[in-house]
Design goal:
heterodimer, A: mainly alpha, B: alpha/beta, 5-stranded mixed beta sheet, 9 helices, 10 strands, about 25% strand
Chain lengths: ~270, ~260
Amino acid sequence: MTHRARSTGVPPGLVAIAVIGVAFVTLPIVGIVLRADWSRAGDVLPSSSTVTAFRLSLTVATAAAIVDLVLGVPVALLLTRVPFRGKTAVRALVVLPLVLPPVVGGVGLLAALGRRGILGGPLEAVGVTLPFTTTGAVVATAFVSFPLVVLATEAGLRSMDGRLEDAARAMGGRRWYVLRRVTLPLLLPQLVAGGVLAWARALGEFGATLMFAGNLAGRTQTLPLAVFEVTQTDPRGALLVALLLVVVSIAVLVALRGRFLGSERRGSP
Amino acid sequence: MRFLSRRLAAISVALVGVGFVIGACGDGDAAGENSTELVVLAAASLTESFGDIAEDFEALHDDVEVVLSFGPSDGLATQIIEGAPADVFASASGTWMDAVEADGGPGTQHRTDFARNRLTLITPPDNPSDVRSIEDLGESGIKLVLAAEDVPAGGYARDALANAGVAQQAESNVVSNEEDVKAVIQKVLLGEADAGIVYVTDVTPGIGDDVHAIPIPKDSNVIATYPIAVVAGSDHADLGSEWIRMVTSPQGQAVLHSYHFLPPT
């Protein structure tokens, strides 16, 4: 494709619609900024409940992203590299959490891992309780953000030059060695992108966490749950807390775009 | 390819157009029938009883549709103060009706108390932690679920625990502060919580077999008084006061009584 400076090929009408589109997703954020009670920022933001929830959110989201990577990368390898029957169905199931209402995910997690769930008995036998625990919050957020790691890794594997791995194998590299020294390093940008996207999704997760892990300050009350609770009685104060989430999310997305997603290829005309 | 994508675009545009037309028709129909919506915001504990009363009310008013929105009283009061279009507010505590009347809120008309309620202890049917009384909630290791403190049901529950002399110990057993009283029931119904404190009216015939209710004795129990009022500035103030008359009428009181609410005085 050759590009010429002005003729972008995009009709002006479309640009107008695009502007509406950008406004559509931006206006709510502007609304939060305008509506927040800034005079109380000094009280609300450093308050112990906000700090506790923020810290818990960072911990939970980070743990969830790690769980997603540990479980998701093998799934992506399985889906791209191993031929087997029913792959389409498996892929659909694996991506399902992305489109499932999170509350439904939370109910499903209770049915699977709750005290009365499918694995509830065995888990209890080894002393693991998930509902109402921080670990439970990690499980809920990891469930919801899991597909992001799988999809990012899969995309990376598909666009990877397989000849490098072939060459490594031809030179006698064992499978684990090739995976560790060739495949994963080549995949690094997608792993980081997937991990960070999953982290950001986990940071904003609400419904599954509330359903599966409950809402207790310091244990399962992540920032979105704290925002929700404060909204019931003090919506303007809640907006300040919500802005914390917005700022962190924007920072993550900007960092991602600059370094890894790189859809705007540098140096292109 | 090009042809296809053009066709897709055309189809999309057509669908959007059809959507608009259908939307417009919907509006037209509503206006044509002159039907009026009465928006009633009510405490979650009124879900079943107000649902029944709304059916009776609509049967008496051909052209009226009662739109019920249930939730925690504190959250509903906040919605009203923030300007949500509400005609009637029924709260599980005077505190949140006061908030609507305070500076910054729209104010109310025709405020009156219409019911009272009490609390009960609930456990899963098999009662895994063998809870027998409200005092037992102070024993360590019990997974207790309450409504959040600002939610009336959560505030009353903590009052009752204080009356029973186990406020502190019980608070340390709380594993989740739920959004409203119905969420408390849900956690007990799912068997994840060992115990919860809800209103007696929440143990409805529909869930009677799925939870085990343990009465809280009079000297520990708390009486919740429910006020109702028309939200000042409502476009349907007359209809709203009719709703209040319905709720306080013998017919409405009979419905509330059938769900074990107490009369207002």
